[in-house]
Each structure stands twice: as C-alpha cells, then as structure tokens.
Amino acid sequence: MIRLNAACRGDPNHRRVVAACLVKEEYVLQSDKGENRLGEQALAPPWWESFSFQLLDTLEDSIIVDSIFGAIFEFKFPPPGSNGINQDQLPPTYVVAFRGTMTNLQTVCKDLRLDLKLIFGGIQGRSRVQRAIEAIKSTVGIARADATIWVAGHSLGSTVGHLAGRKIFRAKPEAKIDYYLFNPPFPLSVPSLAILKINSEVKHVLHYVRSCIINGIDCLQNDRCQRKELDKSFAELSQWVPNLFLNLSDPICAGYVGYFDRRKEMGNRAGSRRIEGRAARISV
Q1: Which end of the chain offers a freer environment for a tag, N or C, measured as fewer CB atoms within 10 Å?
Q2: How far apart are CA 70 and CA 96, in angstroms?
Q3: Cross-sheet strand order for the sheet of 149-154
Q4: Are 100 and 154 in contact (CB under 8 A)?
C-alpha cells in the first residue's frame, strides 16, 4: 500500500486513493467481524495503519446486530519537531467513512432494504443516515478550529454521506469538511439518458418531457411559498461542492452525468431554460 508521505498529501489523486482505501476498509472490517477474525488474523487494520490513521470508533446499525456501516479515523501526527509536515499539505485530522451494500449474512437484509427505499422514495429519515449525521457532528465537535475532516463513502455509503453532508452544511457551512463520494446513486434513481446511444435531439426532447412531468408534480405537491423556499434552499446548497467519482457505464450513478450535461445545455437553449432549470433544482 501507499504511505501518506508529505510529498503526496496535496495531490488530488493521492487523496482520492486514501479516501477510497479507507472506504474499502469498511467492507473488510465488516467481513472481519462476520468471520470472527481478531488480533493478528484481522485483515482491516493495514488499510488505515498504512496511512498513519488510527481507528477511533465504528458505526453500527441500531437494529441489526454486528452490522458495521461506517467508522471514524484520526490521523496520527508525528511528534513536534520531527520530519516535516508541510503546513500547506496537512492530511485530514479525521475521516468518517461509509461502506455500500454487502451481501453477507449479517448485513444483506438491512442493506437491500435501504437500497429499495432509496429507489422508491429515499432514505433521508432512516436511522443509518441519522447515525451518520451524529457521527459527523460529534467529529466536528472534537476537532480543532484548524482541523480538516473528510467524509467518504461508496454506493449506498455515498448516499448516506451525501445526505448527512447536506444536513451538516446547512447547519454549519463554515465547517472544514471535504467529501469524497464514489459511485453515488443518482437521487431520482432512474436510468440515465447519458448512457443511451440515441440522437442528441431525441435526448433533448426526452429530457424536456421528463422536466415537464417533474415540474407538474412539483406544482401539485407544493404551493408558491413552498416552491420559493425550495428555491432558496437550492441556492444555499449550491455553495456545497462534494467530490463525486462516477463510473460512467454504471446506470446507478450515471444520472449525475445527464444532470450536469443538461445544466450545461440550458445556456444554449433559451426556450427550455426555465422549465429545465426548475426541474434540475427539484432533481437534487
């Protein structure tokens, strides 16, 4: 494994690798627990020790026993006066990481149930998301004023990190938190037109029809004051910029590609700009 040396801490690719490895550790940590691997037999510790982190806490589901879905890590800084940590390249003081869906006996029921809820209505109020929000808040609470915190997740864990991050940003926008979200499922959980090999004009018509439907549903569900409040919330949230890492051939997360492509196209299509712009806000 790569060690987190002073020369690479500021490298975006290296930071991505470190975040991905700490997320991978969640899967291995859960496997260790499920297969009762303890002490020297445990396979998870090298995933964080190789980068000079220590495990502070594990996050477990409140209902399912022995189901670890996340963990909190702290970076072990070298003693004062020892070899150079450049102030401009400081590593994160804390990392909060969340795994995605696993199919082993201890986790499969809870994970798949959350996957289905994500498709058919969302998981905003679920206990796993609430536990994640509490974990990030508590980490912000113990961190020094100059400390940086990372939140990382994969797949279902990306959604957990994403929902928790939005909540934290609205409550405390000044917090120094970087987000690394790998293969996050698109919020609407519908197949993306971005991966379909069809004519661009046909795609635009399909997007336009879909936007009209979304706007129609919004008008039925929300009155004018509620829509204004949603617009205000979107404007505030637009200042929050997580790092998304997408597999373009994966229909689960490729919806983000279509979303940002449509945002870019709106500047060139004045006729549909208002309708698609409104739908784009509702989509996230």
Answers
A1: N
A2: 7
A3: 53-60, 68-75, 94-98, 149-154, 177-182, 243-245
A4: yes
